[in-house]
Amino acid sequence: MQSRTKRKHMIDFLFPTALFFVFALSALTVILIAARIYQSTTENSSLNYTSRTSLSYISEKVHQNDVDGGITLSSFGGCDALIIKQSVGEDTYYTYIYADDKELKELFIKEDVNADVSSGRKILDIEDFSLEQISDNLLKISCTDQNGQTASAIIGVRGT
Questions:
Q1: Spatial separation of the C-alpha atoms in residues 54 and 104, rounded to whole Å
Q2: Which entry of 24, 28, 130, 159 is 20 to 30 Å from 7 by CA?
């Protein structure tokens, strides 16, 4: 009988090595693409945080306190303001939401108490804030954050 000796060829080494490098390159490419997508998503998320958060906050405040005649737009200390009227027992309170010195502010005070715009509590830093009465039952609120991203919301109210 003839003994067979297995001869090693160069391809026996090159094929697994090439396959490993193709796999490694593919894995690296997938990781880089995923990292770029994640970075883009977090940047967009942070850019829209301020304007969307402020609109969500205001919308929720309006919906929580939406009684007939409880929501009005007016001026407060020279600033456009959303005014929410609330009755607690026999006392009447007002919540003013307005922009002052590039800050969205909220002020909760009892009726007949004098206060100025600097008394409000800061909610968020913003660039611009506008309120508009579209119709008897619709308010349009727009907010621009410090990055120039503008978001708007139209809120339905029961009565103004």
A1: 8
A2: 24
pTM of the shown model:
0.70
Q: How far apart are CA 157 and CA 68, in angstroms?
A: 8
Q: Which residue has the tokens 């579209």?
A: 134
Angstrom distance (rounded) from CA 65 to CA 34: 44
Cβ atoms 56, 151 nearer than 8 A: no
- Contact criterion met (CB below 8 Å) for 158 and 139: no
Angstrom distances, CA of residue 106 to CA of 2, 76, 79: 96, 11, 12
CB 145 within 8 A of CB 126: yes
> pLDDT tens digits for 41-50?
888 777 667 6
- The total of other beta-carbon atoms located within 10 Å of residue 48's CB is 14
Please give the Cα distance from 39 to 147 (Å, whole number): 17
Predicted pLDDT of residue 3: 60
In the predicted model, is pLDDT for residue 158 greater than 80?
Answer: no
Q: How many residues does the chain have?
A: 160
Residue 43: in which H helix or E strand, if any?
Answer: helix 11-64
